[in-house]
């Protein structure tokens, strides 16, 4: 995790966004070709998602973000699109763990207080989100310290390369 | 304070007094991957710099999600997975052997095990009292290399079951009804533990169906105690020595206790496009279906095929409704042939697909057309799940599926039984 304070614009999504919404199962034949696979990110849900996202934007979702399949390609293609962090009211547990393992921060907080297009500042270490548009301050649920350590290293692979094992 | 099943298994395996909320590191008894998540597991495994699989006989690869392969890229992925199995000497189950979760239940899972798989329906083995949960490819790669992984010990919801199923109502109706009550995120990060006086009457096939779908309410595991039903299933599989009784402590601490009377249930249907959109079958009456799909890790076992075959025997599928049947494993297929179920199904107009995931996830063997509707015995009805975002997917029991195949529209199975 090179940056601990992130600044960017919110892209607002709804509830129950499944991994099939993020990257439809019918493109499973492209999973070993990530540049091709990533062209289909959110294809059924958000037309032209790729051109709507700017580097450093945040996805801001409702409840149960990333439900369904264990496919880690879901957080992977989101990260490849330039999204710097995901904020959600709640997230499916496999997706949550996968995103952190890919070094993509997921913060659980009251996202009803964020509108599409709002400018946000996220202090990752503190878990505090400041809505620069509305001046509201949100606190996210603290993640286990092991998980935060994995995120800080940029994901599970860099963590393991450095530590060789899990350290509690 | 006593322990729930989840706390008990994690305590035993981690060698610690594990309480909900704790983080523990525990050895895994089986770590597995399948053909759509597996190639990324191998990529991450190689990138980790950890040279070998900790214990190759505790690792398995299953070619089931797109099998036989419908596309050249997936064929190449299959080759990659076969090579990896040869290099590392781990188990590999080939195209046509069956669905990973069914094969794990038949050949691997034991009470008290910890099982992690690169597939969200890994929870199925909770029917055998294994702490079994799905993870992503990187977690699986590291679990394979280290022989262990980390867990947050989940809080537990106890689901107390009483009474017996009335005619036409099955395990699928029970779990759909429970998911309808909990909602898609009602049990996120939690363990669901099943208890109550009905347990002794729930077969292993029914327990696997119920455990399979707990993830649709967000749960991390769905655990059944290990009892005589578990023992006789393991003995029948030639694995009787793997049995040990395992129950929660009487004074275990549950975050929530729910009661479900089986006698009060009716056939249920999950409407598009979320699994918790559950209504009684009467509300789906008249919904035309162009395809009926019976199979998957939820409902592709022998009891499921028997149920469908007995309803369809001597009858024909509706002329404009395709009927697809995929046994969950080779063992299921062979037993279904022996018992005459396959004969009845084929005579009724069914297409028998090879043991595997088949039409469930939209890659092959039954992709839906625009505006078509499918009644499926699978576990997910997300938009686009069966390969077409313009199609509608309804979920129900094998009995409701068989009845609907005869009528060409969603039908209460009690009308044809």
Mean pLDDT across the residues of chain B is 98
Assigned CATH architecture of the largest domain in chain B: 2-Layer Sandwich
Give the helix/strand class of chain B: alpha/beta
- The spatial strand order of the largest sheet of chain B comes to 4-3-2-5-6
CATH-derived topology of the largest domain in chain B: Aconitase, domain 3
Q: How many strands appear in the DSSP assignment of chain A?
A: 7
- The CATH homologous superfamily name of the largest domain in chain B equals Aconitase, domain 3
Number of separate structural domains of chain A: 1
Helical segment tally of chain B?
13
| Mean residue pLDDT of chain A | 96
Number of domains of chain B: 2
General description of the model:
The complex is a heterodimer of chains A (168) and B (417). With 168 residues, chain A is of the alpha/beta class. Chain A has helices spanning 19-22, 34-37, 49-52, 73-80, 93-101, 145-152, 156-163; strands spanning 5-12, 58-61, 85-88, 106-108, 119-123, 128-131, 137-139. Chain A has seven helices and seven strands. In chain A, α4 links the parallel β2 and β3 (85-88). Chain A is globular and about 45 Å long. Chain A starts with a strand and ends in a 5-residue tail after the last helix. The model of chain A has no long low-confidence stretch (mean pLDDT 96). Chain B is of the alpha/beta class and 417 residues long. Chain B has two domains: 5-261, 2-Layer Sandwich (Aconitase, domain 3), CATH 3.30.499; 271-412, 2-Layer Sandwich (Aconitase, domain 3), CATH 3.30.499.10. Helices cover 30% and strands 19% of the residues of chain B. Chain B has 13 helices and 18 strands. In chain B, strands 4-3-2-5-6 form a five-stranded parallel sheet, with helices on one face. Chain B has a five-stranded parallel sheet with strand order 16-15-14-17-18. In chain B, α2 (38-48) packs across α5 and α10 crosses α12. The termini of chain B are far apart. The mean pLDDT of chain B is 98.
């Amino acid at each position: 995790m090179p940056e601990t304070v992130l600044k960017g614009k919110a892209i607002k999504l709804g509830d129950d966004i499944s991994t099939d919404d993020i990257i439809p199962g019918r493109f499973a034949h492209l999973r070993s070709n990530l540049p091709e696979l990533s062209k289909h990110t959110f294809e059924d849900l958000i037309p032209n998602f790729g051109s709507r996202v700017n580097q450093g934007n945040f996805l801001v979702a409702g409840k149960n973000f990333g439900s369904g399949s264990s496919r880690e390609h879901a957080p992977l293609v989101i990260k490849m699109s330039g999204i710097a962090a995901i904020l959600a009211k709640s997230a499916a547990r496999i997706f949550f763990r996968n995103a952190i393992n890919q070094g993509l921060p997921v913060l659980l907080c009251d996202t009803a207080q964020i509108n599409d297009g709002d400018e946000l500042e996220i202090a990752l270490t503190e878990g505090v989100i400041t809505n620069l548009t509305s001046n509201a301050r949100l606190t996210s649920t603290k993640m286990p310290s092991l998980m935060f350590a994995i995120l800080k290293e940029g994901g599970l692979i860099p963590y393991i390369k450095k530590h060789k094992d899990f350290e509690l | 304070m006593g322990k729930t099943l989840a706390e008990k298994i994690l305590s035993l395996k981690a060698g610690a007094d594990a309480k909900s909320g704790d983080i523990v590191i525990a050895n895994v008894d089986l770590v597995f991957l399948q053909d759509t998540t597996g190639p990324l597991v191998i990529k991450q495994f190689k990138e980790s710099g950890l040279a070998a699989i900790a214990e190759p006989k505790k690792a398995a690869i299953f070619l089931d999600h797109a099998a036989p392969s419908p596309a050249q890229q997936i064929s190449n992925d299959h080759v990659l997975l076969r090579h990896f199995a040869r290099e590392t000497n781990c188990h590999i189950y080939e195209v046509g052997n069956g669905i990973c979760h069914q094969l794990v239940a038949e050949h691997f899972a034991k009470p008290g095990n910890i099982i992690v798989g690169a597939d969200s329906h890994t929870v199925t083995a909770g029917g055998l009292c294994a702490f079994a949960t799905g993870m992503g490819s990187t977690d699986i790669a590291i679990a394979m290399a280290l022989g262990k992984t980390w867990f947050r010990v989940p809080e537990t919801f106890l689901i107390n079951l009483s009474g017996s199923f009335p005619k036409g109502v099955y395990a699928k109706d029970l779990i759909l009804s429970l998911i309808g009550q909990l909602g898609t995120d009602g049990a996120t990060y939690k363990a669901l533990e099943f208890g109550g006086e009905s347990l002794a009457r729930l077969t292993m096939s029914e327990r696997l169906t119920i455990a399979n779908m707990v993830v649709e309410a967000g749960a991390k595991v769905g655990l059944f105690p290990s009892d005589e039903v578990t023992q006789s299933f393991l003995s029948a599989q030639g694995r009787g020595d793997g049995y040990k009784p395992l129950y929660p402590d009487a004074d275990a601490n549950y975050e929530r206790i729910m009661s479900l009377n089986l006698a009060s249930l009716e056939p249920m249907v999950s409407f598009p496009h979320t699994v918790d959109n559950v209504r009684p079958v009467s509300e789906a009456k008249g919904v035309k279906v162009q395809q009926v799909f019976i199979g998957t890790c939820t409902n592709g076992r022998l009891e499921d095929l028997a149920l469908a075959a007995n309803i369809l025997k001597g009858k024909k599928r509706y002329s404009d409704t395709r009927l697809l049947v995929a046994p969950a494993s080779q063992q299921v297929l062979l037993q279904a042939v022996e018992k005459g179920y396959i004969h009845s199904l084929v005579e009724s107009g069914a297409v028998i697909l090879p043991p595997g995931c088949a039409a469930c996830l939209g890659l092959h063997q039954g992709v839906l057309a625009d505006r078509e509707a499918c009644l499926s015995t699978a576990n997910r009805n997300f938009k686009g799940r069966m390969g077409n975002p313009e199609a509608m997917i309804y979920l129900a029991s094998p009995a409701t599926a068989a009845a609907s195949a005869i009528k060409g529209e969603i039908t209460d199975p009690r009308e044809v039984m």
